[in-house]
Design a protein that fits this description.
binds NADP nicotinamide-adenine-dinucleotide phosphate; 43% strand; 18% helix; 11-stranded antiparallel sheet; 4-stranded parallel sheet; alpha+beta; 267 residues
């Protein structure tokens, strides 16, 4: 018998709900305390669903320190690890310590307003900075305090390595092996004309380097999206984007192979 606490989150699809009740029964029979409320002291968090459900779990648990494992009932599942057909084997491997922990970096954006107030947003996949609706946004972009370009276009996306296969890839960004710790800055519909000059491809920055954004108009309206969660701001002075100290501790089992997932999903 065990006194471990397991936190289970799920999306609402039939297969996820069935998997949750099967898993809960197995765990309760083995003496685990199973809860659906976010608990700081959980020994393990289990998320049943696809990558979208995984992101939701991470945000609703406020980027937990506990290890987390995903059971994939979605499409491919880059974060998700376990098949719903292998619950008994998963618990056996967990109890025998037959796993490793993959520490995933996150990206944070600190938005400072002209009146001095500031706010922070954290993303596991990415941070997006864009203008309102389909208006172009114009801003200066500095790397580590040094001006690099004057950007004009729909916006920019700053992806972590593990977020590189999400929206970043749809925008023409590169797939990055999650073992590399870096930020990928991918332009969204950059203008590149005689009037405006912006990079048209992604740039890669080492994890210890930050980037700063300085909107050109003082009465600006800017939107930040962290993993798809949108927040609007007015009168932004600057936005600093950098790798955060917060990490997500993903449990991986012996068959995990990032490049095989990439091959299956994209080729
Ligand atoms: P959603 O619009 O319901 O799902 C977007 C898709 O992105 C889903 O198929 C999801 O996989 C997949 N996905 C999420 N993270 C991924 C990752 N790290 N690698 C590969 N695929 C990934 O939105 P959501 O479920 O709330 O997820 C928010 C994320 O959607 C954002 O962080 C952004 O990256 C992504 N997104 C992509 C586009 C695009 O590609 N054009 C547009 C908007 C947002 P599952 O099917 O397994 O859930």
């Amino acid at each position: 018998m065990t006194n471990k606490i397991i936190n289970i989150f799920t999306n609402e699809t039939d297969i996820s709900l069935e998997t949750k009740s099967e898993l809960t029964k197995i765990l309760v029979d083995k003496g685990y305390t199973v809860t659906e409320e976010s608990r700081d002291n959980a020994d393990l968090i289990i998320c049943i669903g696809g990558d979208g459900a995984f992101l939701e779990t991470i945000h609703s648990c406020k980027f937990p320190q506990s290890p987390i494992i995903g059971i994939n009932t979605g499409h491919l599942g880059f974060f998700q690890e376990i098949s719903p057909d292998c619950l008994e084997q998963f618990i056996k491997d967990y109890e025998n310590g037959q796993y490793s922990i993959q520490d995933l970096s996150t990206v944070e954006a600190t938005v400072t307003l002209l009146d001095g107030r500031s706010n922070m947003h954290l993303g596991l996949n990415e941070i997006i900075i864009k203008g309102r609706q389909s208006y172009a946004i114009h801003f200066g972009l500095s790397i580590d305090g040094k001006p690099l370009e004057r950007f004009s276009g729909d916006g920019i996306l700053v992806a972590t390595s593990s977020g590189s296969t999400a929206y970043n890839y749809s925008l023409g960004g590169s797939i990055v092996d999650p073992r590399l710790d870096l930020l990928q800055v991918t332009p969204i519909a950059p203008m590149n004309t005689t009037a405006y000059r912006s990079f048209t491809s992604s740039i890669l920055l080492p994890a210890e380097i930050s980037l700063e954004i300085f909107p050109e108009q003082e009465d600006n309206r800017i939107f930040i999206l962290n993993d798809g969660i949108e927040t609007g701001y007015s009168n932004v002075k600057d936005i600093k984007v950098e790798v955060s100290d917060t990490m997500v501790h993903l449990m991986r089992f012996k068959n995990y192979d990032f490049w095989n997932k990439v091959k299956t999903k994209f080729l």
